[in-house]
């Protein structure tokens, strides 16, 4: 269980997260929804140990992650899927999947990755730069699973993807969730979010102002989209 309590974060003089609390259990998908600048990416970076200006508590299965740098958190099973997707551009798909060491507790064998992501198997000899946006997103997700993550921290995985590829990312997230992986997801696409997630935290000015179930998001979709400016 990933647990965040009393989290505060800042850049210089500016506080961007205030007293944030949330949990993500194994097999659960939780989204962070909010306007641009609400603090969603900073929250993911705090959990991964990538943001120095933070106070409060982040624990995984009761273990305090506070003193641990990002690479030690990766060893415990946290997997960061950045919004810039982070593949090695000049390497092939297979190289991107096999060169990073397995650091987390539950690394996927290459065959399992290719079974879950057939599009990557088809494109296995292509350089990462030759992949479409959707394929790059698949590769970013596949890399963290291959490296052994059991908690995925995904920053806007559907951004810029066609509806077809959004559907494929949803399938994969449901599949990893069903295998017991926990997913904390920054997401602005509410239809996608309600299709994969269990709960949604609405972040405003650095605070969780509401926690919504899927049916509540669906009922209030128009209002929420207007609020988010989408
Ligand atoms: N490197 C930085 N230095 C100073 N302020 C920053 C930095 N990165 C983000 N911020 C500020 O912190 C606040 C939260 O940013 P953050 O990126 O976490 O928001 P977000 O909800 O993820 O929005 P977006 O979707 O636009 O990335 C914003 O006001 C932003 O301007």
Automatic annotation (TrEMBL):
Q: Which UniProt keywords apply?
A: Amino-acid transport, ATP-binding, Nucleotide-binding, Transport
Q: Is Chaperone among this UniProt entry's keywords? A: no
Domain ABC transporter: start-end pairs: 2-230
Q: Which CDD domains match?
A: ABC_TM1139_LivF_branched
Q: Which GO terms describe its molecular function?
A: ATP binding; ATP hydrolysis activity; branched-chain amino acid transmembrane transporter activity
Q: Which family does it belong to?
A: Belongs to the ABC transporter superfamily.
Query: Know the name of this protein?
Result: Amino acid/amide ABC transporter ATP-binding protein 2 (HAAT family)
């Amino acid at each position: 269980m990933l647990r965040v309590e009393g989290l505060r974060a800042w850049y210089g003089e500016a506080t961007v997260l205030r007293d944030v609390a949330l949990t993500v259990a194994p097999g659960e998908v939780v989204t962070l929804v909010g306007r641009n600048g609400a603090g969603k990416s900073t929250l993911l970076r705090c959990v991964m140990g990538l943001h120095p200006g933070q106070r409060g508590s982040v624990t995984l299965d009761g273990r305090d992650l506070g003193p641990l740098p990002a690479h030690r958190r990766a060893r415990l099973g946290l997997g960061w899927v950045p919004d810039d997707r982070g593949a090695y551009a000049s390497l092939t798909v297979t190289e991107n999947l096999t060169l990073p060491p397995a650091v987390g507790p539950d690394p996927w064998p290459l065959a399992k990755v290719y079974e879950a992501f057939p599009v990557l198997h088809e494109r296995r000899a292509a350089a990462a730069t030759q992949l479409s946006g959707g394929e790059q997103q698949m590769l970013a997700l596949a890399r963290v699973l291959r490296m052994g993550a059991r908690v995925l921290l995904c920053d806007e995985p559907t951004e810029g993807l066609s509806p077809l590829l959004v559907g494929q990312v949803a399938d994969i997230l449901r599949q990893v969730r069903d295998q017991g992986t926990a997913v904390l997801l920054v997401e602005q696409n509410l239809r996608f979010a309600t299709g994969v997630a269990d709960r949604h935290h609405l972040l405003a000015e650095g605070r969780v102002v509401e926690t919504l179930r899927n049916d509540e998001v669906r009922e209030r979709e128009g209002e929420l989209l207007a609020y988010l400016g989408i």
